[in-house]
Amino acid sequence: MAVHMSLRLAWHSDGWNGHICKRPCENVYCVGQHSYPGEMIAEQRDLDFETAHAGEPYAAHPCRAVCALSGNAFGKEAVQVQVAPPSWWGKEDADATVLTLPPYTACTWCYEAMYKKDVLSAVKGKTYDYDKRQRNAEAYFAQFEEGKSLVFYYAGYSNPFSENEEDNYIIVGVSRIKKIDDFHYYENTTEEIKNEYAGGVIWQKPVTSNYPEEGLAIPYWKYMKDESVLDRIAIKPLHRSPFKYGSREVSNDDAIEIIHQLINSVDALMEIGDDTENWEERKKWLGGVLSELWRARGPYPGFAAAMVNMGLEELVQHYIALTDERDMKCFRDEVRRLMAGDQDEVLGHKVADLRKARREFLLRKEEEQRLLFDILPRFDISADQMGYILSEEREDVSMTASVEEIVQNPYIIFEQYQGMDSDDTIPFYKIDNGIIVSPEYGLENLFDAGDPERLRALCVDELNRVAAHSFGRAETILDSVNHRLDRMPEWKRYTFRIKNFRLDRDIYDKALYLREDDKKDLYLYLRWVYEDERQVESVFTMLAERPDISLRMAITKEKFKSGLRNPESKLNETAARQYEDILDKQADVCMQIFSKPICVLSGAAGTGKTTVIKAIVENIERVHGQAAGFLLMAPTGKAAERMKTQTEKSSSTIHSFLAGNGWLNKNFTMKRKGGSKGQDVNTIIIDECSMIDLNLFATLLRSINWNSVQRLILVGDPNQLPPIGRGKVFSDTIEWLKREYPENVGVLSENIRQLVNRAEDNGCGILDLAELFIQEKQSDMEDTAAADALKRKKEELFTKIMENGNGDIDKDLAVYFWREQADLENVLRDVLTKDMETMTDMRDYSGPDKLWQQAIRREDGTSNPDAIQIISPYRGEFYGTNALNVWMQNNFNPYWSHRYHLDGISYFDKVIQFRNRPKSDMAYAYNQETRAVEQHEVYNGEIGLVLMHPFDLKDKRYRRINTIERFQVAFSNKNRQKLRYNYGREYGRNDRGRYLPEQKVQENLELAYAISVHKSQGSEFDYVYIVIPKRDSHLLSMELLYTAITRAQKKVTLLLQEDIGTLAALGHIEKSAVRRINSSVFAFHPLPEELLYIQNWYADEKKLATLSEYFVRSKSEVIIANMLVSEEVPFVYEEPLYAPDGTMFLPDFTVKFRGETYYWEHVGRLDLPDYRAHWESKEKWYEKHFPGKLIVTYEGRELSREAMEVIRGYR
Length: 1211
What we know:
Blueprint: E1 4-9, H1 38-44, H2 47-52, H3 68-71, E2 79-83, E3 97-101, E4 105-108, H4 111-114, H5 130-142, E5 150-155, E6 170-180, E7 184-185, H6 191-196, E8 201-202, E9 205-209, E10 216-217, H7 227-233, E11 247-250, H8 252-271, H9 279-297, H10 303-309, H11 316-320, H12 325-340, H13 354-363, H14 366-375, H15 383-390, H16 403-408, H17 411-416, H18 428-435, H19 452-465, E12 471-473, H20 474-486, H21 505-508, E13 512-516, E14 522-526, H22 527-545, H23 557-564, H24 571-574, H25 576-593, E15 598-603, H26 609-624, E16 630-634, H27 637-647, E17 651-653, H28 654-660, E18 683-686, H29 694-702, E19 711-716, H30 729-740, E20 745-748, H31 752-759, H32 765-771, H33 784-804, E21 807-810, E22 813-818, H34 821-840, H35 848-855, E23 868-872, H36 881-892, H37 894-899, E24 910-913, E25 923-927, E26 932-936, E27 943-947, H38 950-953, E28 966-971, E29 979-984, E30 1005-1007, E31 1010-1012, H39 1013-1016, E32 1021-1028, H40 1038-1045, E33 1048-1057, H41 1061-1065, H42 1089-1093, H43 1108-1111, H44 1115-1126, E34 1131-1133, E35 1137-1138, E36 1144-1145, ...
Parallel strand pairs: 1-5, 15-19, 15-20, 16-17, 16-18, 18-19, 22-33, 23-31, 23-32, 32-33, 38-39
Antiparallel strand pairs: 1-11, 2-3, 4-9, 5-6, 6-9, 6-10, 7-8, 12-14, 13-14, 21-22, 24-27, 24-30, 25-26, 25-29, 27-28, 28-29, 34-37, 35-36, 37-38
């Protein structure tokens, strides 16, 4: 049975064509942690040389480009690459070897095979037996057949498609293996090294393909600035498991699916007229490969896994060695007779413990035996996956169906199975390929191609792919399903219609929920999603309908105010009146929501949400006495820790609470029933609710006995980023409560932090800027004055930015512009240096690293890594977090980072923990008080500073070592001030004197000089620097920018590429991520289909009048926009208009009549003095800079007629 190979490549900006990248500085992915060989490239890359010889062939510069180990996969010339010995070998131990790689060759290594448990050394002090590692590697490569096995080239997570907290592998090409070279060895290796390191072997294994005769490369490099094309041609494997560890086996089923996706990409390339390759010929080749793969797959690819689950492991190797399907069928028949007791061997092969295996098999139910022998072997799934499916504990992998139900409909395996990690999945195609099989197999299909069970599974697959939405339009889903089926072989094709859903409703209802809107259009939900929405709706409605809580003691506004007031605050003296006003408003909110069984406390960062919660908690204890029991929770460990610190009450993550009450499966998915319900609390407070997705919210509500609960308080900021998962429960809840129970929503609108800044004359730019990107304020069709005021504020602030750009706009707001990479780096260096000099009052220092170290220290000398934070919405590109982190490390920690590091991190680097280490998986930390290594929690998002481990400080050992094996991290969390978390190996011993488990850096930490907006959520920093490139991407949203801005406590600096265009665009309503999520927790109002996918409604040629209400701010503007659309007048909405003197405004509509550009302003509330004054100055500006180009309409009943007269008059 042919096995195929995956081969990881370092990202190449021009298609792995055997040349140095044309813009090497912009390729920041090749040095990434998930690149190959990323660490080697990072250590040895000569960027100055690459820049000087950009675009030139590797062959012209032998041994100068280390990335040639993978960059010649589609290169037509032989190249030479120098491979240096490992850094921990001595200088005299071996010399570098020069590898001469033939055309179309890339190197790889089989990381997984080389690090299996069997390679651990039995020799004390030695970790690995390198001879065993080499034998494993040789066995791995021996299973591939030259001239037969395919090779699938892919990029690891370090690629441009890994963004928005989503890691993706990307298929970049395919060919057939032509030659797998022998292992190479380092030159002049000493005998000692040879004996210890398998002869001094070089692990990079050259693999040559048969390209260009066979295969293709997807031309991503041509379309990196065109997301619409990339979305059509990018191939992200649905089954990730084969694309790990550098190189892994790819089964026929996985290869079939990738080939299907490649055909789809080729079709898209042909449609847009791409001429990179002869795509007609490439498509023919792919079609031939597809036929070949179907023949090679065979009818029972899972039979070996089935034998393992029958206890017949000894027969597996004999079976997989067979290549003829007739021999394989004979073998399977023999195994059937063996287990029935008709014979005691299989083709001369015996089983050692046959009696036990046979007995265990016969003890299984008849349906299990059928599943194991006749159904599961049809599927390309692993022995472990098969074992879970057969197990009574299959709920551990989220399977709730019985064996009988699985036998009746094996598609359930795909619909329900969720493994122990994100890579342990069973995609649809693996089940479908075994249910509807090739006619060549002579095997009966389990279902017909048009059966409802198949359509149901396909719809489940489609709905799983739109993770943010609760439901999807049936017609759109069906179009996608039929498009997929059209790519399949003839025997698997079928065209489904909407009418299919009207039939066999009982089958669809088991996994889907079907719902019609007012227009009788059909929409589909995953059934569990619909049930989760109803769970939230029913609990929240039940609580809202309860009468107000009876109080044993009176509550007063003054009581609340005394609890809210900070007696040590300078505001009591510097801004007494304003502070009193804020306290009054906060106390009013407390009084308003205190007795409500369900309420929301909403407010931006700095508005005092936590202070209000503390005051409410104190008064609950006062009013209810001993009966008061609290449950404080948050979605993240970081937020839970903050609640505990500020309220002085115990708190936990929602996941910890659910796990403790039996609501989590072993794979950490949520149970729908079966957990216990706590009964000892009467007040539940949940913080950071905007981060909680639908499934987590619903499961939490299931886990609580609401008969014992008096009060549920939901806390958060609905204008921050929506959850990474499905839905927008918090936003929906606020909207519903405001509509039905307005007294249950308490909004904190006054910002205490900004009042402090004003009182101390530190500016109010942060608040002014953030207000422009509050999605709740963007459109209120009933309040034109509010819309006009927001537009005026935006124009005023943007004008200040244009007039004062490249400097301070306010004392707490600065804006700088940049064009290219060098500009950004220079601006960032200069601004950081200037700010740090101001912060530290340092002017005389030996280097920027000394300035940095002082800037991130408090007055008492303790580290404060939260003082300065760079934030970028992207991970990739030179303006993303990955490149900025490396740049910061090189510039502000040059000595240590250049000397040595552990997985890219060195002493005194700023780092962030990205893996949760809760009570069930605690990290190891040295406690300075107990002077012992203990286990403690630490959570995703916590930021710290790397310190030397005491073992290496002793006798200044760090001066004598070439590499570091361990270090400690001091996190900024107040509860961790006495803890030093250990990372690496050999950092401490247990009670028996053995070293504690290794804490791998790459599985826990990453650099944090620059972090993503998602990573910053829930944290606050003194000085924030936000990098905003001029790039129109679906990743950029209004909420994303608002979240970034509100992380700053003292000052925010925007680094804008070229101009304020991107900033202005993010203020448009269609850039709100929350508003573009289809959810129906309290009301079912599907968004227009076009709204979900459109990027710039007014800027492209997809303008639809039906969308106007979703994109403009007032009813009057809707009328004008609809007329412009219907009359086919080109226009854009609120696009910045720059005058020659650099000033700017935002015309309501920029329109074109007869090829001439005009600016249409609709004038509203002239009765308001501020509005009138602003309009008069704006009108004069138009007269001065754009005479004769202004069109004006006024608010009034005749707007429709007047607007149409304008259009016709200019046409």
